[in-house]
Amino acid sequence: MAAPLPPARRIVTGHSPAGKAIVESDTTFTAADPRIFTANAPKPDPSEPALGFINLWRTPTFPAPIQGPWEEFHAKPIELADPLGTTLRIVDFPPHQDTAMHRTVSLDFGIVLKGTVVMELDDGACTVVGEGTTVVQRGTSHAWYNRSDEWARMAFVLLPSQKVIIGGEELEPHKFTHE
Question: Is the pTM of this model over 0.85?
């Protein structure tokens, strides 16, 4: 079941051969269920609301290249975070759904665009995060919950980061799992 949230519009600028600013692309995207492009994920039931991803942009490196051709990543199988490049993603959260606990080796900026979500950390601490709030995730293990009756939407910017080392031990990233 598709989210009753508006599609996301992405406008990409570039340069003409004369060096003038131009619009290279103006595209609208609807959210895609990430299970359709995740290995070993259960086949989604289209009648049930599902988490929706809109992968708006990804760069192969950081600092990011800003000239030349670029690749489209929406509805393609990509990791949550890129170890070398940046990712810009919108996530739509259905009512009364959550994500698995996960950690990426990245510096993440999560901005609540609509609704309210709950961020849970691996120590069990929960923080309510409302519209207009920004969360800065620094390689921590966390999950997101939408405990309301309404859809919620967040934008995430993920930047590659140094590994997390605590007490001389590297904390490994962990991905969503689908058993």
Answer: yes
